[in-house]
Write a structure and sequence with these properties.
Elements: H1 3-19, H2 24-41, H3 46-52, H4 54-65, H5 72-85, H6 87-110, H7 123-139
Length: about 140
């Protein structure tokens, strides 16, 4: 199990759930750590890091276009995660997190009678998806 993204995501999830905000200092520290790890420990090329940022960049563009229906913090978290886990794992992680948040959103709208504009924290779904995917990877070995 790659523990580093987990250590990064737990505090992000807590602050996103409680305050609907993400600590930019926390993301900066972990982003710089990911860059250092990829360049100096794993000897990855800059091209790898660039492609790993693409999901986060796409989410930031969507946040801008949608006037933050998806928050900038979500895009920044995926920028950092992309550097730790790579583009393909980021895509799968985003897909599973979107499925989880969609199910909860439907429940909130249909059962709890919340409005479509009701905002939920997204990063806890990213954390749950990451744990689930790591668990699946561990049992499939």
């Amino acid at each position: 199990m790659n523990i580093m993204p987990l250590i990064f995501l737990i505090p992000c999830s807590i602050t996103d759930f409680r305050k609907k905000k993400i600590s930019m200092k926390w993301c900066l520290i972990w982003g710089l750590g990911a860059i250092g790890y990829q360049l100096f420990c794993k000897k990855q090329q800059i091209l790898f890091l660039g492609s790993s940022l693409s999901i986060g960049i796409i989410l930031l563009v969507i946040a801008k276009i949608s006037r933050q229906s998806i928050g900038y913090g979500d895009g920044i978290v995926f920028l950092v995660l992309g550097m730790w886990i790579g583009i393909w794992n980021s895509i799968v992680l985003l897909l599973f997190a979107l499925i989880g948040s969609s199910i909860v959103s439907l429940f909130l709208i249909l059962v709890m009678k919340k409005k479509k504009t009701y905002k939920i924290a997204f990063i806890p779904f990213v954390l749950a998806a990451y744990i689930m995917l790591e668990f699946i990877a561990a049992i499939s070995i």
